[in-house]
Amino acid sequence: MDTKLHISYNQIHSLIYGAVARFGLGSTYAPDLMIAIGGGGFIPARILRSFLKAQSGANIPIQAIGLSLYEQLPGMDAETLGTQVAKTQWLNFGGNDTLVSLLGRKILIVDEVDDSRTTLVYAVAELEKDIREQELKAGLQPGESGTEIGVFVVYNKDKPKAGELPAHVMERYFPAATTPDRWLFFPWDCTTDIEEHTRLANTSS
Predict the structure, then answer these.
(1) Which pTM value belongs to this model?
(2) What is the pLDDT of residues 92-109, one digit of tens each?
(3) Of residues 77, 97, 115, 181, which has the active-site annotation?
């Protein structure tokens, strides 16, 4: 049995559309900042923003972060590859004109797939550190800013996870679809004929 699941752009678009309605995104939970994990979270975040804009009329800002679990990076040995997350790009907390304020926000982290959950656990932990630092600088106690974090993934793999997200984040965990543990072949990973990829996606099950 071929365990590779080809996925088309149209299928992803439809899954995100359905998830917005199913979870009440934009109403039950209305994010005002999206953080896309690169590179798989970029296109889903952009599609999701369009659906949310249709409800509110506002463009939600999208910030990009780079986290690498499977990519070979300088100084990374074979044992580290696939087990430890490396931060390759993070939010800009530089000058006043580019400062990203996290306080009081409803943040939605977006990625293509929740596989081992390692990357998402790392992203949430690092983000919560930044929130606590900003709260302290503002003279607030941890949690006083009321900042909320949610997670949106196109696919959640139904498998044991290497880590767990905090309970308050799992309350705002939004998987557009759940799939068995298979190789998911996304359209942005296709380097040959996208029409053939789409045909295979339409015949995959």
Answers:
(1) 0.90
(2) 755 555 567 899 999 999
(3) 115
